[in-house]
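Feature request, filed as a ticket because there's no other form

It would be nice if the structure record came with a short human-readable summary line next to the tokens. Right now we just get the raw output. Example of a typical job, pasted below so the devs can see what we mean:
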Amino acid sequence: MFYVIMDLEWNNSYNKYKKCFVNEILEIGAVMVDEELEVIDTFSVIIRSQLIKKLSGRVKNLTHISNEAMSSGVSFQRAVTDFSRWIGARNCVFMSWGNSDIRVLVDNFSMFCGINGVPFLTQYVDLQKYCQQFIVSAANQQIGLVNAAVEMGIDVSHCQFHRALEDSLLGLRCLKKCFNKELFMNTAVICDKAFYQKLLFKANVISNINNPRIDKSKMKCSCSKCGTQMRRLSDWKFSNQSFSAMFFCKSCERLVTFSVRFKEYYDKMDVRTSVVEMPMHSDDGENE
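Raw output as currently delivered:
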């Protein structure tokens, strides 16, 4: 068993055929290690853009890849062919910091090779999710590679950030800080059809109240003081990604705005609610 930590750098370019902006890969970097996490080999290649002639100032400042270096790079097709040969017949588990790189890689294979999926990807671990289990301050929030390294006590003062091979090697240093083979392999997923369906599924907030995927029981509001079910006074309105309505508790004479958001992911529906107390109008002006 071998482990490959991979990182990509890319440029957001306009694709006239798709008539939208896409992320075009500019660099692939990777480090291969054995089961003891000893380095076997490294891989690095700069890719010549097929969509633009010059990089934006932001990308050049971020990656330190010059227009000259990019122009003298190889085609995406040649780069992934060389990368596949570098992997060879080895049984590898692939890693990246977050799954954004894998999604971009899938898009580039589709754009430039006409292939759905990544041929050499067999097993995958999201290194970001794995490492976050060992970083208390990260909790359930996503943490960047550099910040994670600092939290793990790694000296990053001599690192060259946003270069694919350097970031791959930094990812390896993070992995070494928290590697547990059994836990790690339990995190690995097979890169089958279901993997790609989940990877490419775009989470979306449901805005149609008649959508059958909405659980209407989640749209009931109970009084936080007496626990009784409050009565809805207004129609539901969709705003700021949530359905909202006015609710009233007769027992406590409380008026609130109750909001509920339904966000659909590939394998779950995330439901979040909020309650805002509303002022009750007095009847001081009423005639006695």
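Something like this underneath would help us a lot:
The radius of gyration is 25 Å.
Confidence is low (pLDDT under 50) at residues 284-288.
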